[in-house]
Structure formats: structure tokens, C-alpha cells
Amino acid sequence: MDLNRFVSNVTRWKIALAVVGALAWWLAAGKLHAMAFCAGALASAASFWFLSHMVRAVGSEKVSPAKSIGGALRLAIIGYLLFVTIENYRLPQPALVTGLLVAIAAISIEVIRQHFYA
Length: 118
What we know:
Elements: H1 3-29, H2 31-59, H3 65-72, H4 74-89, H5 93-100, H6 102-117
């Protein structure tokens, strides 16, 4: 399995799931819930981006200290940003948590798709 193709397919799934999820939350509960879902999906996408870059760095022979520190601190950075977002904007937690699951769902869909069609 080619890593670059896998990551690009997961990115497409994340975009599709984010659009569908935001629309569903908007129709079900309103604009604030849709915004909370988008904030969670954005944090999920950022975490996946940091993780994919860390995996690519481990695969190469030389890993820079900046990438190592950035990869190690990714959860702390994303957690802090989510905390600030929740505290300042009082976003609904169910929609936010659902958005955080977008990357996991996209990875799962792509793994299942590749299992059957690869």
C-alpha cells in the first residue's frame, strides 16, 4: 500500500465526512452545532496531518529535532486549542466530539475500501 495514495484518499474521505457531518448537524440542531462539528473536524484533521508527517519523518533516515518536538507536542497543542475554543465560544460538546471522530472514520473507511478493492 502506497502511503501517499492512502493519505490522499483519507483526506478526500475527511472532506466528504466533514461536509456531510456539518450539514447534518446544521439541519438537526442549528448553526452553532455545525460550527462545533467543524471545529472538531479541523482539530482531527490537524492531528492526522501532524501524525502523517511524523510517520514520514520516521521513515526517512534523518529526523530533525523540530519535527520530533512538534510531533510529540501535537496532542498538547490541539488539546489546548480545543480547550480555548470550548471555553471562549461555549460550543456544544456532542457536536465537537463527533467532529473529532472524522479522521478515525475516514481512516476506517479507507482501510475497509482498500481491503475489498485493492
